[in-house]
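Re: your question from the hallway

Yes, I did run it. Sequences:
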Amino acid sequence: MSSGVRTSRLHGHRPDIWSLVIFAGFAIVAIFLIYPLFDVFRYSFLDKVTKTLSLSNWKTFFSKAYYLRAFWHSILIALLTTFFSMVLGIPLAFFTTRYRIRGTNLLNTLSVLALLSPTFIGAYSWITMLGRNGFLRLFFQSIGINLPPIYGAFGIVLADSLQYYPFISLMTAGALMTIDRSLEEASENLGARSMKTFFSVTLPMILPSVTGGALIVFMMSLSNFGTPMIIGGNYLVLPTLAYNLYTSEISQTPGMASTVSIVLMLCASVVIVLQQWLSSRRKYASMLVNRPVVKRLKGIKSLLAHLLCYFIVFFSTLPLAVIVYYSFRKTSGPVFKPGFSLDSYRQIFFDVPKTVMNSFLYSLIAVLLIASVGTLLGFVIARKRNAAVRVLDPLLMIPYMVPGTVLGIGFIVAFNRPPIILSGTATIIVLTYFIRRLPYSVRSAASILKQIDPALEEAGINLGSPPGRTFRTITLPLMQGGIISGAIMSWVTSMNELSASILLYVGKTMTMPIKIYLSVADGYFGTASAMSTILLVVTGLSMFIVNKYFNRGSDTFIAA
Amino acid sequence: MASIQIVDMEKHFGEVQALSGVNLEIEKGEFFTLLGPSGCGKTTLLRTIAGFYHQDKGDIYIDGELINNVPAYQRNTGMVFQNYAVFPHMTVFDNVAYGLRVRKLPKEEISRKVSAALKSVHLEGYERRTPDKLSGGQQQRVGLARAMVIQPRVLLFDEPLSNLDAKLRIEMREEIRAVQKSLGITSIYVTHDQEEALVISDRIAVMQQGVIQQIGKPWEIYRNPQNTFVAYFVGKINMLTMRLDEGAEQGLRRATLGNLSFLVPSEGTEGMHEVIAAFRPEDLIEAAKEGSQNEITGILKTVSFMGSLARFELNVEGQEITIDRHRPREADMPQKGAAVSFAVPTQSMLLFDPKTGRRIGKGGRR
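Structure:
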């Protein structure tokens, strides 16, 4: 066996620190995933009145239009969002990769910023533009166009599509850039026109990436809580329905909230399974012998291509710009006044400095946990594939299919009674950040490790260094860049987390996303804008650091 | 006492038997090579000695000490890897110093030893470089310096030259040999390149399908292969399956192949009706005009001029054979399609049993 099985254990049969890591992995999954999710599952089969095992909740769900409607709303919203994301994403990807478009880097950066910004910011900004007295609505009214009301399906799809289309554009662009030019040339050489070539060669080759991106968009839209919460009005989708049910069932058993959560999780699981199946199928990887040519367009064609690309990205960045603008407007209580000031920022730092502190502190602690635990578990999964690890690996991926709302409900029902009482603590918030982000961190650590030759670790062992020291002196330094850029992405998502933490916070553990949501609900748009701007700056800076110092491309962001 | 002893070793990966019944004794200071095609178990054996794999059965002794349960990092073996495995995040100096630092040597001693090691692989002045600034050959020199500087009980080479270009390979193998001999460290060298094995080794073990086929000095392996696999794998050899006539005379027996007739040594052929006669391309001589003993006539299929020699491929009674002519001259070259004749001296013939592939007769071991 000259190439051998490289993943087998590096030395004899004695237990080492890696056994401990595997054990810890199982413990985390059991306590923070299985236990709370099982609780949710259990409550959905518990009669509210008799507290006995029954199907009453499920009967209610399937018999009342109120519940079923939310289910169909969720599916419809996700489908429409996916469709419009493709409409925006595919042309943008095609033009920016195949034709020379000035400022492609800027376009990419801006669309990723829109993608990573908290979902509720976009939604809230569209309200300020297209809400009852929104300036865009007034503008359109003045030229005689009456736009449909923003609250409801229209607003959700609008905000979601403009936020999530970069998943499609970035993945499609990635595929378009790695198609071997010779394949398209071969098609043309055999007599196909360029349209024919696009549909018979190019499109089939990028299809796996396009569908991969589409499934991510579907999944994100399905489990998105912030946007429908802020802009949905009475138009309920599964996450907002679960949240509403939970808050109304607060003094009873959360039977219906649990039932809706299980339905939501099942939907998400179907999408994830589909995605796994799709990505396990053959991909058209090429050796990149000939990179595709970037054509130069002339005159009107070039102008139109530029207009299209800039229009798409402008539209998706507009909500962010509007928020930043409003954050500097003069305010008096909830009302905006003419002129500019730092009122809103002053208000934040005098009234709710704790909220800002909380966000930074919780995210920081969570990220340290995520990065260290994720790296250790990633190592075990990439390098120590024994029977236990093969069981652990898929278990660690469970959070992928658990929408934040569901995890939040699970945590609150499981951890407000013995043996583990965490409700009302900062710990429970940090733990939600940790669990939601852990699979990404594990995956990314494992994939970094796959690019590090195991022979390097063997060389360390062979030179007399015990496994722990080898990991510290060889593996870890080689993984460093990847770990840090992954940690920064975790930091961004933790800072912006709303869907689980809104169920778990108490006054003293409030974070910025929660405060923004509450301010919007109360009509204090100035404070909301200023806090959103802070989150945007944090997001933007993090992206900049990842790009600049870790030399990672846009793919880092879509993997996040 | 042997420096390394492998006793009755077995190892399998799932269904695949990677090593079976492996027994070896390697002398102190010896340069020992494991030679075989990919998948033959040579790398598995090397990695088991290093402690990266654990054998299913059998014992490993180094200097008389049983090391079965000693973890890899305590075995004190110095390994040189196929893809160099030079730590990319460390300078050349730090790479070579790594094992010494693990051993907690004083700073001055580390620096002295690293310099000496780098000198012996001709990398003086490269201490501060990082691996990405080094060529493949230089990286492998770092790998070699790093492995030998810890003064291991045994040096393990895992196809260290297979990623280098042909010219560098020849240069490096001579350096490895020279460094090993000057340090006197027992070495085990894995390769699939039979020429490399012949040049570099004191002794060679030829492996196939997890089984050691033959152990011997390079000369023995080439001149005295014990079965058809070894004969085929090391160097080029022609094999013709012939029918044996009954009766022997003066230690010779007549064998026929179509219209051709040969005299082969009779020893060991008792009771056999068929035999494989094998001979190296360079052992054929030109047939005399008036006809020679053991003459082979065939149709010339291809002529390849290779500089120092010309290689003829001949079709003889439906079987292919190869003949090498040294110092070829253009004027003497036969044309493709011509019938040409050569002769095999009886003493150059190696006989094998067609059923078992085993060597028979003189030189065969039972």
